[in-house]
Amino acid sequence: MKKPLLEFTNKGIYCAAAKVYLDPWKPVDKAIITHGHSDHSRWGHKQYITHHTNIPIIRHRLGDINVTGKEYGESFIINNVKFSFHPAGHIIGSSQIRVEHKDEVWVFTGDYKIEDDGICTPFEPIQCHTFITECTFGLPAFKWTPQKEVFNDINNWWQQNQNEGKTSILFGYTLGKAQRLLKHLDTSIGKIYTHGAVENMNEVIRTINTLPETILITRETKKEELLGNIVIAPPSAHGSTWIRKMVPYVTAAASGWMTFRGARRRRAIDKGFVLSDHCDWQGLLTAIKETGATKIISTHGYTDIFSRYLREIGYDARTEKTQYEGELSELETKKESEVSS
């Protein structure tokens, strides 16, 4: 039986012909990395290869690592296997990995979305035979509203809170979601304050892309300064001692999980905005169709349901287990949320 070009092992996705791993979750000699989220770029590899804009991000998170950067579309050969990075549209610096060997082409998406968010390089469909896709939101119930409408709602919510003399606290993951929120907030309404973990990442992103002016919240910041303005913080800051000095405030979260009211209720959030850096159901199907692939491997998310549907409509589809967590991966620890508390 012919050995697959990419196989799923206990260390990660492995290309035996090149002796290299894609987004491995255990330490390996050589790792090709799709993006900077913690479930895809882990500490301990001897050598990292990634898109060049992802280098400052993973160095910020992992420290002084041995890393090489590539451009989108730039081919590089490892043991006669050809690799290249292509835009994933997930967050800044995110990529799909194209793997070609002996007239066979596979594409590993990492995490991705097909809507152009205006801050990262938009998703680019790549022709292939086998497509490894996430399906974090692989249920028909997930159907995203265009982000322009979502940001209109967010800015109107901020304006209303300001009219009522309250501080708006908006939770979004430190890497990716926070910067997307910042990019589209209406700064004519007021000032944008940030949690320390968010601001630390902003400093890294500002070396890659432009962001609006933000003000770091410190111990010296008075709640009177925050009234009427907006605060961007990681989800883990909710309920912490850091947030108590901001009374009176109104909270909101921006996430694909806000589709379900129960998720907002469990997290004791006042308002939920459905905004994800992953594809919805239709986005996944559109991306798959545009690749021309006949074989589909679903990794993290609603894998069984999504793969079953793909088989029903004619694809050769199966699932594989990984240690990727999709939108759950950036739930920062309490320790990180208390930076600059």
UniProtKB/TrEMBL annotation:
<protein>
    <submittedName>
        <fullName>Ligase-associated DNA damage response exonuclease</fullName>
        <ecNumber>3.1.-.-</ecNumber>
    </submittedName>
</protein>
<keyword id="KW-0540">Nuclease</keyword>
<dbReference type="GO" id="GO:0016874">
    <property type="term" value="F:ligase activity"/>
</dbReference>
<keyword id="KW-0269">Exonuclease</keyword>
<dbReference type="InterPro" id="IPR026360">
    <property type="entry name" value="Xnuc_lig_assoc"/>
</dbReference>
<dbReference type="GO" id="GO:0004527">
    <property type="term" value="F:exonuclease activity"/>
</dbReference>
<dbReference type="GO" id="GO:0004521">
    <property type="term" value="F:RNA endonuclease activity"/>
</dbReference>
<dbReference type="InterPro" id="IPR050698">
    <property type="entry name" value="MBL"/>
</dbReference>
<dbReference type="InterPro" id="IPR036866">
    <property type="entry name" value="RibonucZ/Hydroxyglut_hydro"/>
</dbReference>
<keyword id="KW-0378">Hydrolase</keyword>
<keyword id="KW-0436">Ligase</keyword>
